[in-house]
């Protein structure tokens, strides 16, 4: 067995050209080497392979059976290596057949992916997009192992070590059904506390959110009567009942089934970000995807 540690890549390139030209002088010209240098390379190759490889013939040199067996796999191996180390090609979305996997909660699906979807389909019709459930505690590991290409999460809770691109700042508004009798105008703090509220509890079953933290600092409370795990269900609940909710403004923007007013309490918003791993940071296709999504917002 040939010891790969003894093989110099330049020797294999020389062997490939020698097998093609079957002439030391012509091989030296193609390689831009001196003829003695090519002869030295051939001597090393003969020693490594334990075979003459090329023997004197009537019109130059003729390959041995061992050399003939090496010719095709050697050419394929060098071509594969050239392809592997070649500079990355410019990404052509019209010809792309990628499948991108992105992790997003229903909020990001509606506010980030939905606005980008038509443009992505138009520019890259042969590509596919798989939206998978967002597990905040697993983002870093999934990105590192290549299970996801992108994740959409708040900057404040983004895992360390990932690339991050802020997309927008979000703020909270008070929403209820269109025609809600208590939302004809901005409610007072006392009226706000008496309304029946819905909260989104991603972990399930919680009846407290950031609004309650702000209220408790002022010694106040509100009536939270329903807890759900997803934002989109809240929209349906509000449209069909007299319940209200503090929701991100982008989620309810332009929804004519809802009445949106400013809340009587200032609740801190958050920054939405796009996250990805270093492994795909410089990939032209991935760069295109990131730019396309950011430009759609």
Automatic annotation (TrEMBL):
Keywords: DNA-binding, Transcription, Transcription regulation. Residues 7-64 form the HTH lysR-type domain. Pfam families: HTH_1 (PF00126), LysR_substrate (PF03466). GO terms for molecular function: DNA binding; DNA-binding transcription factor activity. InterPro entries: LysR-type_TF, LysR_HTH_N, LysR_subst-bd, WH-like_DNA-bd_sf, WH_DNA-bd_sf. The keyword Transcription applies. Belongs to the LysR transcriptional regulatory family. This is Transcriptional regulator, LysR family.
């Amino acid at each position: 067995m040939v010891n790969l540690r003894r093989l110099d890549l330049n020797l294999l390139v020389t062997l490939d050209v020698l097998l093609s030209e079957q002439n030391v002088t012509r091989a030296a010209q193609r390689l831009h080497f001196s003829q003695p240098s090519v002869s030295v390379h051939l001597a090393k190759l003969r020693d490594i392979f334990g075979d003459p490889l090329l023997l004197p013939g009537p019109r130059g040199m003729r390959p041995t059976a061992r050399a003939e067996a090496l010719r095709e796999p050697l050419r394929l191996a060098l071509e594969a290596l050239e392809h592997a180390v070649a500079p990355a090609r410019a990404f052509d979305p019209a010809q792309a057949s990628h499948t991108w996997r992105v992790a997003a909660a229903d909020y990001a699906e509606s506010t980030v992916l939905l606005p980008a979807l038509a443009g992505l389909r138009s520019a890259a019709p042969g590509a596919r997009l798989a939206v998978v459930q967002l597990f905040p505690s697993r983002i870093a590991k999934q990105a590192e192992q290549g299970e996801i290409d992108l994740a959409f999460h708040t900057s404040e809770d983004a895992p360390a070590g990932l690339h991050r691109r802020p997309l927008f700042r979000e703020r909270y508004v008070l929403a209820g059904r269109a025609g809600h009798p208590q939302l004809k105008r901005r409610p007072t703090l006392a009226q706000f506390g008496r309304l029946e509220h819905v909260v989104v509890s991603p972990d399930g079953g919680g009846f407290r959110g950031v609004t309650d933290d702000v209220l408790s600092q002022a010694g106040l409370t509100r009536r939270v009567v329903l807890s759900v795990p997803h934002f989109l269900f809240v929209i349906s609940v509000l449209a069909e009942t007299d319940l209200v909710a503090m929701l991100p403004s982008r989620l309810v923007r332009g929804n004519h089934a809802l009445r949106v007013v400013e809340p009587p309490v200032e609740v801190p918003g958050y920054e939405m970000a796009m996250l990805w791993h270093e492994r795909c940071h410089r990939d032209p296709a991935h760069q295109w995807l990131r730019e396309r999504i950011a430009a759609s917002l």
